[in-house]
Amino acid sequence: MARLRDITPRGLYARSLLMVVAPVVLILALMTWYYYDSHLAEVNRKLAQAIARDAAQIQSFCDARPDTLFTKEKLQRDLDMTFTCDYADPADGSPRLIHSFAYGKTLTEELTIRLGVPVDVSVDPRTMLHFRFPSGSGTAEILIERKRALVVNSHFFIVWVIASSLLMLALAVAFLNQQVRSILRLSEAARAFGRGRDAPGFRPSGATEVRDAARALLDMKSRLTAFADQRSAMLAGVSHDLRTPLTRLKLSLAMMEQSEDLAAAQSDLDDMAMMLDEYLTFARGEEGDEPMALDLAELVREAAAGFGAHVPVVGPTSISATGRPLALKRAINNLISNAVKYATDVRVTVLDGPHAAEVHVDDNGPGIAPERREEAFRPFSRLDEARTQNTSGTGLGLTLARDTARAHGGDLRLSDSVLGGLRASLRLPH
User: Short name of one Pfam family for this protein (predicted)?
Assistant: First the structure.
């Protein structure tokens, strides 16, 4: 099943419309087929049988040839039919009769079976049916209204069914259009929130369930925003407060007589100061870094340029994206810095896909075992492998980089590099 984010609004609307139109058209087609092929045909056959029974009485009268005029008039009145036992071909110029019409074959069959002689059935422009059959030495003719023998206005039923179906379909499409628009707005808002952007003008709308989902999304967004702001404020506050005692410790150690133990302590304090600087830089970067249109390829080249010419960047010269530039640049810096620490050959590759752009940072270092790669994303994680021996750092580089990628709706994953070491792949949806 296709993911919702891979379906365009027009595609989702067309698919939903098809789900409504297709069953209606199918039901209408089946109902029409049944009505014409089964029900209507049976009704016309029953009418034809009734007419054939009345025609049989006229046949008996014409075969007997009584001379009483009263008997003929009474029979015509009782059967509501006009007939003659001695039919003569009309003169030229009389209305042309039609021998082929709807359900004429059914009527002819029933009359032939009932009367036992060949019957010629035709209709004139006045929609009067003419039945002619041999009678004695001549030919008899019966005239009745067509609507008495056949259901001739059946198309009205189909017209009314189609009209009512179209009305119901229009109402369904209008309702569906409103609901699909609400779902699409909810999807766009969720996608924007997932990428760290706001959705101005978004408000719950549509069916009750869609409005409940929209309210839950807004509540979740406000909670996550408050949590992120609280985390950044706490990190900035703690880092700032720790700088004062750390500075006093550094001054105290500087006034002591130098020794190996003192040098080790000063090195530890320098590492702590570096960590606090990174925390403060991260916290300050979180503030005021709003999503905006940016050139991802240019941003990657700027980040790689800080590490010198020995970190080449391969890929397109320009990739349009939307995101928080400071956070993305910091994440890419962390990935490149992590690779430079443990390898001699580092290469950055930028790819522009149909749905997302990717940044691959490859190195020829010792790498990380597949079963321990998820552990590398844990905060303050220090893997006891060759990649972490005799190196300094906070242990937050990969953690913050993946947080940044996921905040933009993407992700960060580790895999084997074509250079023989580790590959860090940052994915950023367009």
Answer: HATPase_c
Largest CA distance in the chain: 155
Class of CATH domain 291-429? alpha beta
114-150, pLDDT tens digit by residue? 999 999 999 988 788 999 999 877 899 999 988 888 7
Which residue, among 393, 391, 369, has the nearest Cα to 379 in the 3D structure?
A: 393
Contacts (Cβ under 8 Å, ≥6 apart) of 287: 232
**How far apart are the C-alpha atoms of 165 and 158, rounded to whole Å?**
10
3-state secondary structure of 362: strand
Calculate the CA 373 to chain-centre distance.
35
The structure tokens 């706001």 sit at 198
pLDDT tens string 256-289: 877 777 777 877 777 777 777 766 666 655 555 6
In angstroms, rounded to a whole number, what is the distance separating the alpha carbons of residues 345 and 74? 116
72 CB burial (10 A radius; 0-12, 13-18, 19+): middle
Which contiguous run of DSSP H or E holds residue 32? helix 9-34
Residue 95 region, left (φ>0) first, then alpha (ψ -120 to 50), else beta? beta
Contacts of 293 (CB under 8 A, 6+ apart): 320, 321, 322
Burial 7-30, CB ≥16 within 10 A → b, else e:
eeeeebbeebbeeeeeeeeeebee
- The structural domains of the chain, with segments of one domain joined by +, span 10-152, 207-285, 291-429
List, for residues 282-319, the tens digit of each pLDDT value: 665 555 567 788 899 999 999 999 888 889 999 998 99
Query: CATH code for 10-152?
Result: 3.30.450
Rg (CA), the chain: 45
Beta-strand ranges (E) seen in 292-345 are 292-295, 313-314, 320-323
CA angle, residues 307, 309, 311, in degrees to nearest 5: 65
Q: Is 7 helix (H, G, I), strand (E, B) or coil?
A: coil
Q: Which two tokens stand for residue 262?
A: 């003192």
DSSP codes, 217-264: HHHHHHHHHHHHHHHHHHHHHHHHHHHHHHHHHHHHHHTSPP-HHHHH
CATH number of 207-285: 1.10.287.130
